Amino acid sequence: MKALIFDTHAHYDDEQFDTDREELLGQVLPQKGVCRVLNMGADLAGCRDTLALTRAYDYIYGAVGIHPECAKELPADWLSQLRSLLKEEKIVAVGEIGLDYHWLEECPKDRQKEVFEAQLALSKELSLPVAVHDREAHGDTLALLKKFRPKGVVHCFSGSLEMAREVLKLDMYLGFGGVVTFKNARHAQEVVREIPLERLLLETDAPYMSPEPYRGKRNDSSLIYYVAEKIGELRDISPEMVLKAARDNAGRLFGIPTERN
Question: Hey, how many other C-beta atoms are within 10 angstroms of the C-beta on 187?
């Protein structure tokens, strides 16, 4: 199978992969057409685990950052720890960072914004793209993106077509995964039908957010094909055309060669 799948957002350090991680990453995914994976750190331990994955597998690259749900209590040197990790060769982005107002008991809004802003500033300092998490925080997320104007992607995009247009004006990308295949995903389907193909990225958020017909089961990068199939249906183009465009977009954004050795 031609390697067309570039998964721009996964969490293979998650404990759901503890039982078969080596087999899955070492054999199964490369055999199913996965050419690249960008693994996302969500806390400092996950960032170190992400670095280890990039060293163990040639096709895995990494992003490091503090997820909004993990931002409440951090060591005093957390930002310098991230800065050090971002100097590693295969760490190519600041992520997963952003705002999540769904579970505010995990971290209050002001603290989330403080940590998000610090990481946006770090991305500008190091000239690296960002992978942005935005859940029920569209207004504040967009305001901070307009303030810092980073390169990067709003992952698992859940906003309106109007918000998508505002993000595109910032020369950012939009990431889509399994949600696009859900019957009730009207907003996501409207956005992927309308936005320029050269601004679209594909992702899993593995082990979460599996597409139909695997909804509710553990997700992995090979299932991106079902997302591409749905987007192709919505745009009246082939799944392979979607996969190739998204792969090339990801390579351009993150500065990663997309052809496997």
Answer: 16
